[in-house]
Amino acid sequence: MTRYVGSCFFTVFVLFLWRVGDIADACKCSPPHPQQAFCDAEIVIRAKVVGKKVVSNAIKYDIQQIKMFKCPNQVIHAIFTASSPAACGVTLEINKEYLFTGKLETGRMYVTLCGYNPPWEDLSAAQKNSLTHRYQSGCDCKIIHCTSLPCPISTTDACLWMDWGTNNGQNLACIKSDGSCAWK
Predict the structure, then answer these.
(1) Are residues 44 and 59 in the same domain?
(2) Which residue among 122, 148, 171 closes a domain?
(3) Where in or outside the cell is it found (predicted)?
(4) 139 is in an annotated binding site
(5) Full-model pTM
(6) pLDDT tens column, 70-126
(7) Alpha-carbon distance 77 to 95, whole Å?
(8) Within a domain: 78
(9) Same domain for 132 and 105
């Protein structure tokens, strides 16, 4: 009988560890380049967070929209995100301005940890300028994130981003000219 109990305990323990691994790995993504986040997003805005409320399995942040960069003719009063970082939910501070890149679903804006949602004050002057002047014109290009060498590119419609851990590449935009994409 003790052998049976030991076997059951071991099985439950292994299943527990397996499940903890799943939960710990629930939200995994590498940070996108600001331009790629802009191009992949359905909506990009600058807004100030003014309130927070838990609704169902999500958090609703009330916002004051300051500027619309992508998806004009849309007024957003709230941003929704998952209720925890493990589920890719974003944690925001009240009375702070952010750049939000997200998706629209039934008139609601959703953001995740896998998007690009930095505090507005953390953006460089070049990034702020690119939001209105360069990123949109570079959406025909794909930014390929290279984390280890070699990183071959097999197309002229891409730029290689190798500045992992630095902000240098984030201040550039990948723009198509003369039939190929290049950093500008």
Answers:
(1) yes
(2) 122
(3) Secreted
(4) no
(5) 0.81
(6) 987 788 999 999 999 999 999 999 999 999 999 999 889 999 999 999 999 999 999
(7) 14
(8) yes
(9) no
